[in-house]
Amino acid sequence: MIRVLLADDQALIRAGFRVLLDSAEDIEVVGEAENGAQAVTVARDRRADVVLMDIRMPTVDGLEATRRMAADENLAGVKVLILTTFESDEYVYEALQAGASGFLVKDTEPEELLHAIRVVARGDALLSPGITRRLIADIAARGPSRPSDIHPALSELTEREREIMALVAQGLSNDQIAAQLFLSPLTVKTHVSRAMLKLGARDRAQLVVIAYQSGLVAPGRS
Fold first, then answer.
1. Which end of the chain is more exposed for a tag (fewer CB within 10 A), N or C?
2. Burial of 50 (0-12, 13-18, 19+ CB in 10 A)
3. What is the pLDDT of residues 96-111, one digit of tens each?
């Protein structure tokens, strides 16, 4: 059972999400929060697996709440799925750095929301094409990577791990990477997991950030 916390300052939106999530046999809503501070507390108390996090909330916004969750050892296993009104949300890059596992627009189809929760719950990243383009644009605007941006553990990756990490950063799934490299999806998953472990990445979303920050993948390079 996937335990979900709803964090949004609008009660009507929380109620709508609760009705939808309660209809799924493998998902359980374990709590609600109307601001980021409450979200951190409730996630810890109710042992949530996934937090549906709105960014724009009073007192403590979703971005700061995500940072606090990522820094809290008691919330190490919690995945944050950011809810945005528009895919061009200006906080995309910062939220991914803070530890968010994915992004979803609020007007998404019900089945897509349920799928998104399951995706992030199992440790995968959820980045729509629009979100990915925004992320790359933000990184490109920051200019070329500096020596200080290079992740110290990047040199520990094998050539295959670096190759697969670069494809992950382009938004490819394990199945797509497997087909491109003539490998099994399980082999790809193993390489991704090893890269995450070596780099200390929480999930695939963090691999994407590290790949662009370090220059392993350059914005605009296919």
1. C
2. buried
3. 778 888 888 778 889 9
C-beta of residue 82 within 8 angstroms of C-beta of residue 125 = no
- For residue 68, is pLDDT > 60? yes
Residues 6 or more apart in contact with residue 88 via CB below 8 angstroms: 130, 134
What is the residue whose two structure tokens read 């189809």?
Answer: 109
Is residue 83's pLDDT more than 80?
yes
Residue range 175-217, pLDDT digits in tens: 889 999 999 999 999 999 999 899 988 777 778 778 877 877 7
Q: Please answer whether residues 104 and 127 qualify as being in contact, where contact means their C-beta atoms are separated by less than 8 angstroms.
A: no
User: Whole-structure pTM over 0.85, yes or no?
Assistant: no
pLDDT tens digits, 4-34 = 999 999 999 999 999 999 999 999 999 999 9
Of 28, 31, 35, 34, nearest to 44 (Cα)? 31
DSSP structure string for the chain: -EEEEEE-S-HHHHHHHHHHHHTSTTEEEEEEESSHHHHHHHHHHHT-SEEEEES--SSS-HHHHHHHHHH-GGGTT-EEEEEESSTT-TTHHHHHHHT--EEEETT--HHHHHHHHHHHHTT--B--HHHHHHHHHHHHHT-SPPGGGS-TTGGGS-HHHHHHHHHHHTT--HHHHHHHHT--HHHHHHHHHHHHHHHT-SSHHHHHHHHHHTTSS-TT--
